[in-house]
């Protein structure tokens, strides 16, 4: 037996620790990681979430400011497209803020929940419907083929929204139902 492999008793003890939920020692390349190594990795993971969260917040603020700037510049020339573009961009900001909020909740609880992602998908599908509808409404020459593609896209997104709303309902119901 070389110095890097564990004895049967050490491996058995490690398996027993794992069975009790101990995360203080893991086998990697036949070596156990120590608590400080795992602690460092968890801190780096936390900083990764924090930096990603701040990035979502910063990008959201930039998109928000740019959307309002673009709206102010174009509203006098083309009011309806300017309003639709503003709504489109503001829905993107809401998506970014939901991602930011999800990261905050994860950092508080260390649990990733499904519901915020379902909301993000509903918002994204709604955004797609509004964007596609606005594009079609202001096209000069809409052929039957383009209109049929629009209807398929619209129908697909509506089905996605219905499925997501059902998923939100089921997720909430599962949280409210006491475990047996």
Key terms:
180 residues, 2 domains, two-stranded antiparallel sheet, 2 strands, disordered N terminus
Characterization of this structure:
- The chain has 180 residues and is mainly alpha-helical.
- The protein folds into 2 domains: 35-110; 113-180.
- Helices cover 77% and strands 3% of the residues.
- The chain has a two-stranded antiparallel sheet.
- A hairpin with a 2-residue loop joins strand 1 and strand 2.
- Helix 2 runs antiparallel to helix 3 (79-109), helix 3 (79-109) runs antiparallel to helix 4 and helix 4 runs antiparallel to helix 5.
- The protein starts with 7 loop residues before the first helix and ends with a helix.
Strands, helices and their partners?
Blueprint: H1 8-19, E1 26-28, E2 31-33, H2 35-74, H3 79-109, H4 115-137, H5 144-176
Antiparallel strand pairs: 1-2
Helix pairs in contact: 2-3, 3-4, 4-5
Separation of termini?
A: 49 Å
In total, how many beta strands?
2
Query: Strand share of the residues?
Result: under 5%
**Pairing-aware structural class of the strands and helices?**
mainly alpha
- Calculate the mean pLDDT score and round it: 83
Compute the CA-based radius of gyration. 25 Å
Give a short synopsis of this structure.
The chain is mainly alpha-helical and 180 residues long. It has 5 helices and 2 strands, in the order αββαααα.
């Amino acid at each position: 037996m070389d110095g890097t492999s564990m004895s049967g008793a050490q491996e058995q003890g490690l398996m027993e620790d794992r069975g009790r939920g101990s995360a203080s020692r893991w086998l990697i390349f036949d070596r156990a990681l120590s608590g400080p190594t795992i602690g460092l990795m968890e801190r780096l993971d936390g900083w990764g979430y924090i930096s990603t969260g701040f990035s979502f917040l910063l990008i959201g603020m930039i998109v928000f400011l740019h959307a309002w700037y673009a709206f102010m510049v174009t509203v006098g020339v083309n009011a309806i497209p300017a309003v639709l573009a503003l709504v489109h961009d503001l829905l993107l900001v809401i998506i970014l803020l939901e991602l930011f909020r999800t990261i905050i909740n994860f950092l508080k609880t260390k649990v990733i929940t499904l519901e915020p992602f379902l909301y993000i998908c509903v918002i994204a599908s709604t955004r797609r419907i509004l964007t596609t509808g606005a594009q079609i409404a202001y096209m000069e020459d809409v052929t039957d083929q383009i209109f049929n593609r629009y209807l398929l896209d619209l129908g697909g997104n509506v089905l996605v929204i219905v499925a997501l709303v059902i998923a939100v309902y089921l997720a909430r119901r599962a949280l409210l139902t006491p475990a047996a």
